[in-house]
Amino acid sequence: MVASNPLFNGMSLKKFNATVINDVWPEVSFFSLVAAMVALVTKLTSHNLAIPNTLLTVLGTVLGLVISFRTSTAYERYQEGRKMWTNITIASRNIAQIIWIHVPFERVDKDKKSMTTVQSVIEKKSMVNLVQAFSVSVKHFLREEPGVYYQDLYPLICFLPRYATHGATPADMLPQNMLPLWQASEHDDYPLHTAMPPSQQRSFSESGKQEASFSSNDRTDAPTLRRTKTFDPEAALADVQSHRPLGPARSPPETGFFDYFPVFRIFAWMFSTCSRRLSRKSHKKKRKGPLAESNVPLEITIYLSAYLAHLLRHGWLTPALATGLTNNIASLQDTMTNLDRIGSTPLPFAYQAHLRMSLWLYLFFLPFQVVSSFGYLTIPGTAFAAFLLLGFLEIGQEIENPFGYDENDLDLDSFCLGIQRELHEITAHTTPDPTQFIFSSWNQPLAPADRRSAEELTANAEAYSHSDHADSEPGMMSIRRVLLKNWRDVDRITRQ
């Protein structure tokens, strides 16, 4: 398959922002001005600024190799991040299939307590929702968005216990009893111990008091959380009321003036530095956030492992399937660790700084070395060299952490939505008895050699002659001949 040219296949502002032109044009302009100064002084005055170009080839080759290594290393991290998300997709499918298909719907535990089909479906679907929540939590974890109060994550895990005491009463709802998953997301303005269960929220709303309460807390103080576009994937999730406003599923930084004119960022830095120094005496020090931290993806895998232990205690899962489920949960944990390694381990600052300073020195002295041969062509030649080398350097820096909101980063939202669709497709499966659909008139299992349906074949079993061997089932040798003919026909038809 021939890929289309991205530059000429409908160029748009989004595609333009995905390039590195906005990042390199200030430096390209600076080195072009240096080249213009060197060319004009050499051609229009008696001063000759040309210097020998002995080191041009050697240094250019070495610098090109170093930049190529820098870009290749960053792309390897980009590709590894994509592979890790493929592992999450595969493990999520496997876990969901084991839970949904192999865990029985009608169960009786060791205490002879039976579980109805409805209860079993609710239990298994809730655990599949936790599998979906894992990928969503990894997305927020990699984007350094802590906590669980997001529109695409909270509806999937809001049923998990909040306190160490099971069946906690209001007297047990204390901060010291709060589990790490919720403690790390605590907010002083919206304390968790004041949250009411959904049943109490509904009754409270019927009395006419909840409407005013939530209008004062959520609608006035909270910003607009829902996206105004038609595409709203969070609408497919459960509608669960939270005691605090939920953050948006996607929070990309707004594109501002300094993104298009990065050269002026030094003035913003100077202004912010002076402002902090002037206001240091007049303002109190900000109180830090909660010291407790919680790895949300790890917490979810702990609940999945606890569910596996629950199934094994009651004998509802065979050892072989339990091993498969354990391996897939371990695969999720391993993948999460590798993704964290990619996102939190940039290239050393000394390497990046030395490479950029070396490139700047090379581009600065480049016009002095080529002006005697190129003349006024030194200006566009230096601009092209600066655009080429600086562009590759910026590309390597941009893709070394592919989990953000840049146009060239991995589309983590799309990956999570794909996993969501696949898990819902798995839970839509009704796991029927194979005999209910195999021996039907729609099935032609022996085609193309024999195009009769399975229903006709079973009704006229005597159509196949008896086997030549007494120890074989009657008719098996004829069926094997048909299958052999199938192989020859398919091999002939499918080859060009």
TrEMBL record:
Keywords: Cell membrane, Ion transport, Membrane, Transmembrane, Transmembrane helix, Transport. Residues 197-217 have a biased composition (Polar residues). It is a multi-pass membrane protein. It is found in: Cell membrane. The chain crosses the membrane at residues 24-42, 49-69, 360-393. Residues 190-234 are annotated as: Disordered. Pfam families: Bestrophin_2 (PF25539). The keyword Membrane applies. PANTHER family: UPF0187 PROTEIN YNEE, VOLTAGE-DEPENDENT ANION CHANNEL-FORMING PROTEIN YNEE. GO terms for cellular component: plasma membrane. This is Bestrophin, RFP-TM, chloride channel-domain-containing protein. One of its GO terms (molecular function) is chloride channel activity.
